Amino acid sequence: MESTLEELKEALGDTILIDGIPMLLFLPHYSYKELEEYTIKVLNLFSPNLILGISDEISPPGDIEKVRFVSQIVESFRV
Fold first, then answer.
1. In Å, how far are 14, 16, 27, 56, 64 from 68, measured between CA atoms?
2. CB 36, CB 77: distance < 8 Å
3. Per the confidence metrics, is the pTM higher than 0.85?
4. How far apart are the first and last CA of the chain?
5. Residues 36, 69: contact at Cβ < 8 Å?
6. What is d(CA 25, CA 56) in angstroms, rounded to the nearest whole number?
7. How many Å apart are CA 43 and CA 37, to the nearest integer?
8. What is the DSSP string of 39-57?
9. In a 10 Å sphere around its CB, with 0-12 CB exposed, 13-18 middle and 19+ buried, how is residue 51 labelled?
10. What's CA 79's distance to the chain center, in Å?
11. 5-41 pLDDT, tens per residue?
């Protein structure tokens, strides 16, 4: 059974979340829109108790431009 981000937030409370974005979202078959929506949801739920990163690490077929894209989202995010 998978947990939702909301369930994770409830379980963690004010504990800091490290990572938060599944590596799978950086693969080519996931859209930038899906990555953006997920990233914003993580930021909204866990900021400021968040060290945002890619869970596991980006794999060779991952799109490095998506890492830059997430960086832009974070730069424009306001807590």
1. 28, 23, 14, 18, 7
2. no
3. yes
4. 31
5. yes
6. 12
7. 10
8. HHHHHHHHTTSEEEEEES-
9. exposed
10. 15
11. 999 999 999 999 999 999 999 999 999 999 999 999 9
